[in-house]
Amino acid sequence: MCQSTPPADLVLVMDATAGRHARRFLDEHWCDVHARDLRPQGDLVVTELVTNAVRHGAPPAVLALECQGRDGVSMRVSDAGPDAPELREAGPEALGGRGIALVDVLSAQWGVEAGPDGKTVWSRLVGQVPAG
Ligand SMILES: [Zn+2]
């Protein structure tokens, strides 16, 4: 748990500005106490998660950000669409983003949870990986 920065969430506008809004949201709610060094990865991951929801999901979509102290930072993007993102190589159709493959590389853990009202794609970033 983080004693410094409370969890926050943002209802996403489902258009091409969503990534920019998400990064601005991170500006306001990112935990600089525990996760300052993770911010560059955070920007990349949140952009991919949000872009994926805008392109392939359905409204409403919500971004949830939570610092978990030593356990890292979790970002979750939920939307009302049923289709999970596919892990695949970036291709010409990937346009500006490299998709979930980038999330896979940058995240300590990530996953997709299906629910009755859609799905959640989540990522957890961890700064200090224990040796061994
Ligand atoms: Zn924190």
UniProtKB/TrEMBL annotation:
The record's InterPro entries line, in alphabetical order, gives:
Anti-sigma-factor_SerPK, HATPase_C_sf, HATPase_dom
Which CDD domains does this entry report, sorted A to Z? Answer: HATPase_RsbW-like (cd16936)
> What residues does the Histidine kinase/HSP90-like ATPase domain cover?
21-122
Single annotated GO MF:
ATP binding
Q: Which UniProt keywords apply?
A: ATP-binding, Kinase, Nucleotide-binding, Serine/threonine-protein kinase, Transferase
Cross-referenced Pfam families? HATPase_c_2
The protein's superkingdom reads Bacteria
Q: Specify whether Translocase is a keyword of the entry.
A: no
Record-given protein name: ATP-binding protein
Organism of origin is Kineococcus halophytocola
